[in-house]
Amino acid sequence: MKVVIPGGTGQVGGILRRALAAAGHEVTVLSRRAAGAGEIRWDGETLGDWVEALDGSDVVINLAGRNVGCRYSDANLQEMMDSRVRSARVVGEAIAAVSHPPRVWLQASTATIYAHRFDAANDETTGVIGGAEPGVPDYWAFSVDIAKCWERAQEQAYTPHTRKVALRSAMVMSPDRGGVFDVLLWLARLGLGGSVGGGAQYVSWIHERDFVRAVEFLIERDDLAGPVNLAAPEPLPQRSFMRALRDAWGMPIGVPATKWMAEIGAFALRVDTELLLKSRRVVPARLRAAGFAFDHPTWPEAARTLTHQVRTTRTG
Ligand SMILES: NC(=O)c1ccc[n+]([C@@H]2O[C@H](COP(=O)([O-])OP(=O)(O)OC[C@H]3O[C@@H](n4cnc5c(N)ncnc54)[C@H](OP(=O)(O)O)[C@@H]3O)[C@@H](O)[C@H]2O)c1
Fold first, then answer.
1. Structure pTM?
2. CATH superfamily of 2-310
3. Ligand 1 mean position, distance from CA 294 (Å)
4. CA-42 nearest atom, ligand 1
């Protein structure tokens, strides 16, 4: 297949690029700083020569958007919104403009669209969309708004010959340097992998292998469209999540952090506490109903596999 990945230079793009190329597909990445073979320059917001890459392609997977690992200042939140909505909109316009549009458009979205909750898991049908939860900082609603506008940009695109799927993904765990697992493992190795703010908030995650398999599954399955949760079936409270990671590495200590300590830590890491404190309890109902089976359904096993990979690939 010919696969085009706008925004494919980041963490998730790296995972998909590697896997799809290894499976024999022709992968083209659209980037604002295209440099190497297989990369084409675009600006993420206006039509240009890059549109030709979509003509005759089979699949488009749009991952473009400002990284969420930052402080949620007004300017950063606005850039997170604009980069996502504009890139989704222009990808839709490009698909509409070409004479041989792709069969399917997978559009990145996020599990963060769901409400901060503890009582039950969010699936695609009965899940509660966030933004109106009591007792959480007002600005948390903005991340939900971003996700809603992002999905709406795809929904509103007129692409009659192209199936549209929104990937409501949880954190994708891979052993790659700089990825989210790398950061969490680094904290655990420093002895800082304890509970945060009590640790009752749920963590949703997906192993990179299952992420790739789910993407391949969604490409194949012509009957699936709309929002699909990409998350392992067993999200777990943050304190259990970090305990399993410490156990997998063999680190006996994990100093707990209160909310104010998390504030200081998040400030030092230049991220926002919402990433640490929001309860993301998301389950993959549509994937499972469609017959998708996870290779890594439980976190303790996935954490052992990932730490083993880190240990064997990073000697010294
Ligand atoms: N990583 C996860 O676990 C996870 C989980 C759920 C959802 N997601 C979503 O999946 C997508 C990919 O995630 P990722 O972790 O690979 O993100 P990433 O590492 O930040 O990569 C996203 C790419 O978007 C492009 N980009 C950044 N700012 C942009 C802008 N203003 N306009 C157009 N393009 C811009 C960049 O490409 P260039 O600089 O090359 O143009 C960048 O490589 C993101 O939208 C993210 O929100 C990720």
1. 0.97
2. NAD(P)-binding Rossmann-like Domain (3.40.50.720)
3. 24
4. 41
